[in-house]
């Protein structure tokens, strides 16, 4: 049609230029012919059309002016031909630029189409225009709280879900939903999003409130009906524009959820194993802690028996031994009580106590063990009236564990003159208790692991004594350490407990 229009235009211009007496450059109107067909033909065709127009101009000039034209006529001829040539050149250049731009655009579209189709993330394109119109109609109808409206009217969510058109999808999306071709892809969101889905309601809120990005976990159905767990992210353009091309990025998390399930089961199994190990450790700890007072009970009852078997029997000494045995038995009862409180998560009794007095009463419980090993006990208690706040039985148990470790270490390595020193001092707002001996001490490689549960260098030991000591010290906001300056020259363990302000 445009070629016919161009031909008719050229004919009309030729007739006007040839058979009228107009004294103007009518031939410049041939540019209209070039413009009419310029974007339909190649640059070579434009050059041919320009040559034809220039030829018609020369024919008209010859028929009007013959062999003796005037200067004005020659000038008009030159202007007309020059205009036609320049117009043709500009149109040809424009065509070249247009064609190269179109080629680059096609290449770019092909490139990004390849990227779109080969991405590892599934992508499909949504058209939300109809949904936006429905929400605007609700607003116009007086709905002010869309979130509450969606809760009360789930049918609106189902209706709008069916209105979301799927206009494109990449190859990863096809594989995700087990669809062979794009033509067979679901036409709307309701095709693969179950009606039980709760994420789309939040998507409607995001669309209404103008969120730039909406992300949610969801579950979709494949073409075969199998569920797939996904994370979906939609990007909404500002101002509600471009709702006909809303891209959704979809990440398949089915495998991740499977692994999470495996991890959850593994954690449950580990928890059961940990509880079993904790029960075993608790049993070992309980046996270790009760062993000391029970040993004292046996020592004192044996002593009472010896006093009573004398002739005459020494009733006073026997009663004294029985009283010490009763104290040790009471100590065992206190340990059981505290274990019960621990298991029931009850709070330990925390009361102010004078450290030096607690140490003196604790030492009385192991006097028999000290005597049995011929150990010299030296008390250098210089904390005076300094007090700490805590559980008296636990603090005393800490001291007894340290003394028991020292006595066993010296006895096992055959110290000729075993000597046990218990010292206290008050310094910088803390009370320090040091228990030292002249046994083999700590080897350097064992020093760093001494407080680990079940680590021991003594045959037959469960390795729980120092672990319990650290637990008790930390429970009282204190600390415990080994004096490294005395490694392999006897052991020295120092406990620090925060002191109460002086009254």
From TrEMBL:
<dbReference type="InterPro" id="IPR005467">
    <property type="entry name" value="His_kinase_dom"/>
</dbReference>
<feature type="domain" description="Histidine kinase">
    <location>
        <begin position="285"/>
        <end position="501"/>
    </location>
</feature>
<keyword id="KW-0067">ATP-binding</keyword>
<dbReference type="GO" id="GO:0005524">
    <property type="term" value="F:ATP binding"/>
</dbReference>
<keyword id="KW-0808">Transferase</keyword>
<keyword id="KW-0812">Transmembrane</keyword>
<dbReference type="Pfam" id="PF00512">
    <property type="entry name" value="HisKA"/>
</dbReference>
<keyword id="KW-1133">Transmembrane helix</keyword>
<feature type="transmembrane region" description="Helical">
    <location>
        <begin position="73"/>
        <end position="92"/>
    </location>
</feature>
<keyword id="KW-0902">Two-component regulatory system</keyword>
<keyword id="KW-0547">Nucleotide-binding</keyword>
<protein>
    <recommendedName>
        <fullName>histidine kinase</fullName>
        <ecNumber>2.7.13.3</ecNumber>
    </recommendedName>
</protein>
<dbReference type="Pfam" id="PF02518">
    <property type="entry name" value="HATPase_c"/>
</dbReference>
<feature type="transmembrane region" description="Helical">
    <location>
        <begin position="49"/>
        <end position="67"/>
    </location>
</feature>
<dbReference type="InterPro" id="IPR003594">
    <property type="entry name" value="HATPase_dom"/>
</dbReference>
<dbReference type="InterPro" id="IPR003661">
    <property type="entry name" value="HisK_dim/P_dom"/>
</dbReference>
<keyword id="KW-0472">Membrane</keyword>
<keyword id="KW-0418">Kinase</keyword>
<dbReference type="GO" id="GO:0000155">
    <property type="term" value="F:phosphorelay sensor kinase activity"/>
</dbReference>
<dbReference type="InterPro" id="IPR004358">
    <property type="entry name" value="Sig_transdc_His_kin-like_C"/>
</dbReference>
<keyword id="KW-0597">Phosphoprotein</keyword>
<dbReference type="InterPro" id="IPR036097">
    <property type="entry name" value="HisK_dim/P_sf"/>
</dbReference>
<dbReference type="InterPro" id="IPR036890">
    <property type="entry name" value="HATPase_C_sf"/>
</dbReference>
<dbReference type="InterPro" id="IPR035965">
    <property type="entry name" value="PAS-like_dom_sf"/>
</dbReference>
């Amino acid at each position: 049609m445009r070629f016919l229009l161009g031909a008719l235009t050229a004919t009309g211009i030729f007739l006007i230029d040839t058979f009228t007496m107009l004294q103007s450059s009518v031939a410049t109107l041939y540019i209209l012919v070039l413009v009419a067909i310029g974007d339909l033909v190649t640059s070579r065709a434009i050059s041919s059309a320009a040559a034809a127009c220039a030829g018609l101009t020369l024919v008209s000039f010859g028929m009007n002016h013959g062999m003796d034209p005037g200067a004005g006529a020659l000038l008009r001829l030159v202007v007309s031909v020059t205009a036609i040539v320049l117009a043709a050149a500009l149109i040809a250049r424009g065509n070249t630029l247009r064609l190269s731009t179109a080629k680059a655009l096609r290449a770019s579209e092909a490139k990004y189409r390849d990227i779109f189709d080969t991405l590892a993330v599934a992508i499909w394109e949504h058209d939300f225009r109809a949904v936006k119109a429905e929400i605007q109609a609700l607003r116009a109808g007086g709905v002010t709280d869309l979130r509450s409206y969606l809760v009360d009217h789930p049918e609106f969510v189902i209706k709008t879900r069916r209105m979301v058109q799927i206009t494109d999808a990449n190859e990863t999306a096809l594989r995700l939903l087990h669809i062979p071709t794009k033509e067979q892809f679901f036409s709307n969101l309701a095709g693969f999003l179950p009606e039980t889905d709760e994420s789309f309601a939040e998507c409607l809120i995001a669309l209404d409130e103008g969120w730039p990005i909406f992300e949610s976990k969801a579950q979709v159905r494949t073409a075969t009906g199998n569920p797939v767990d996904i994370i979906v992210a939609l990007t909404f353009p500002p101002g509600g524009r471009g709702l006909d091309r809303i891209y959704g990025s979809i990440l398949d998390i089915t495998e991740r959820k499977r692994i999470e399930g495996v991890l959850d089961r593994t954690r449950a199994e580990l928890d059961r194993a940990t509880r079993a190990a904790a029960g075993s450790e608790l049993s070992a700890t309980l046996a270790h802690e009760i062993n000391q007072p029970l040993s004292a009970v046996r020592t004192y009852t044996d002593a009472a028996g010896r006093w009573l078997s004398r002739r005459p029997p020494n009733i006073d000494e026997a009663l004294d031994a029985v009283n010490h045995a009763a104290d040790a038995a009471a100590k065992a009862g206190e340990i059981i009580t505290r274990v019960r409180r621990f298991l029931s998560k009850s709070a330990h009794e925390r009361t102010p106590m004078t450290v030096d007095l607690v140490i003196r009463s604790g030492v009385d419980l192991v006097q028999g063990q000290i005597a049995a090993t011929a150990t010299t006990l030296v008390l250098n208690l210089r904390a005076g009236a300094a007090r700490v706040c805590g559980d008296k039985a636990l603090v005393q148990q800490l001291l007894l564990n340290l003394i028991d470790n020292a006595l066993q270490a010296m006895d096992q390595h055959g110290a000729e003159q075993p000597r046990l020193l218990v010292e206290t001092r008050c310094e910088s707002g803390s009370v320090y208790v040091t228990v030292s001996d002249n046994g083999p001490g700590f080897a350097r490689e064992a020093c760093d692991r001494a407080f680990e549960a079940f680590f021991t260098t003594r045959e037959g030991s469960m390795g729980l004594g120092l672990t319990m000591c650290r637990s008790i010290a930390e429970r009282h906001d204190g600390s415990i350490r080994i004096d490294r300056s005395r490694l392999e020259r006897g052991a020295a363990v120092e406990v620090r407990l925060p002191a109460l302000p002086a009254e």
